[in-house]
Amino acid sequence: MSSDSFLIIEDQKSIASLLKSELEKLTSQPIYLADSMAKAKHIIDSGKQITVCLSDLHLADSANGEIIRYLKSQHITTVVLTGSFKEETRKEMFRLKVADYVIKDTLASIRYAVDITHQLYKNAQRDVWVLSSTGHNSSMILGMLRNHRFNVSFYENASELLTELKNTTPSLIVLDSVQTQIANNSFELTKKVRNQFSQNHLPIIVCEDTENITEAIKLMKYGVNDFYNINFTPEEFYARVKQNIEQVESYQAIERLSQTDALTGLYNRGYFFDAGNGLLEKIQKEEGYFFTLMADIDHFKTVNDTHGHQKGDEAIVFTAHTLQTIFADYLVARFGGEEFCVFGAIEDTDEVEALTEKLRHTIETESEPQTGVKFTISQGMTYSGNSLDDAVSKADKALYQSKESGRNKVTTQF
């Protein structure tokens, strides 16, 4: 079965080469080139799974844009790249439901065309929810979002949307208009969404007309990220959607960098305490039970001194991956160096103790086959603590006891 791929249709070899090299910086998916409509048809007919196409408008065998109509007939999402701008042509292209219409007059515009082509591919993994009880723009909005390959869900009342929000998080929520009905009050909906998600984690945009623009601005004070005019053009709508999704994704990427350890990908110490304190508070409110585990690679200095720092890093990464796999349902962090910590709610101490033994055994038996260096791990665990700091301190003391009594074991302190 063919994998998803891109098709670039461009009859200028230098431009085609530039487009391909720029797109290769963004994706590892196959990229095919065609310099005519005939060659493009041959590639498509060969069974290649073309997901998105970046196409010149005028080719030697497609002087009047026939290539665009052909791509539409094949249901291939298409970005049009052309050397000259004509308003009537632009309108015709959007009537044909092309994804975008770009003038190839600068390097910046070429890079924009490549970027939007790649974004269209990624949109298939992005969920957009549309809320509309009036329906006056909903059909157009739904069609435009699907034209850009988003996974779209439509809701007629806010309660359905809020219920679904408990189970999954979309990339964007679109409000068809500022609504004040009891069942679909945009202000109440926004407040409830913002109780769960900040503007940096779930963007909301709203459509409104010029006469009612003050309501849209007021709604932004409640937490809506952006609004667009009811007489929007396709370019404006797509730009608003793209900008808001990308801003949140950029924020989340930076947030992940600040929360994770660069070497292992585990959470870092700072995030462990931020998230762990909240989790502990929830456990205590529910009168539940928890455990805290400290783990440390035995004789790690010897591993570094004997085998080098690269092998030391491999040992740390292997241990981190093993911890994350075995304790997948819990909060796992690298505290620094060769030291790790795990925290979470429990119902059965036997289950957690079985996991610690599995960790000990896996490190002992698999470290050498996986890293080329045989090493073991010591662990300290507790089921108590007045605070997360206190619990970590108790687990650390238990870890010290494991080290002092021979290593490669688990010690529990109550």
General form:
flat
Give start-end ranges of low-pLDDT stretches.
Answer: none
Number of helices: 15
Strand order across the largest sheet: 2-1-3-4-5
Count every beta strand, where a strand is a DSSP E run of 2 or more residues. 15
**Category from helices, strands and their pairing:** alpha/beta
Q: Beta-sheet strand percentage?
A: 15-25%
Indicate the percent of residues in helices: 40-55%
Radius of gyration: 28 Å
Oligomer: single chain
The averaged pLDDT comes out at 92
N- and C-termini, Cα separation:
56 Å
Biggest sheet architecture: 5 strands, parallel
Secondary-structure element pattern, one letter each: EHEHEHEHEHEHEHEHEHEHHEHHEEHEHE
SSE blueprint and pairings:
Layout: E1 4-9, H1 13-24, E2 31-34, H2 37-45, E3 49-56, H3 66-73, E4 77-82, H4 87-95, E5 100-103, H5 107-122, E6 127-131, H6 138-147, E7 151-155, H7 158-165, E8 172-175, H8 186-196, E9 204-208, H9 213-222, E10 226-229, H10 234-259, H11 269-285, E11 289-297, H12 300-307, H13 309-326, E12 331-336, E13 339-346, H14 349-371, E14 377-382, H15 388-404, E15 410-413
Parallel strand pairs: 1-2, 1-3, 3-4, 4-5, 6-7, 6-8, 8-9, 9-10, 14-15
Antiparallel strand pairs: 11-13, 11-14, 12-13
Helix pairs in contact: 12-13, 13-14
Report on this model:
By secondary structure, the protein is of the alpha/beta class. The protein is 49% helix and 20% strand. The protein is built from 15 helices and 15 strands. It has helices at 13-24, 37-45, 66-73, 87-95, 107-122, 138-147, 158-165, 186-196, 213-222, 234-259, 269-285, 300-307, 309-326, 349-371, 388-404; strands spanning 4-9, 31-34, 49-56, 77-82, 100-103, 127-131, 151-155, 172-175, 204-208, 226-229, 289-297, 331-336, 339-346, 377-382, 410-413. The strands form three sheets. It has a five-stranded parallel sheet with strand order 2-1-3-4-5, with helices on both faces. Strands 7-6-8-9-10 form a five-stranded parallel sheet, sandwiched between helices. Helix 12 (300-307) crosses helix 13 and helix 13 (309-326) packs antiparallel against helix 14. The chain is flat and about 80 Å long. The model has no long low-confidence stretch (mean pLDDT 92).
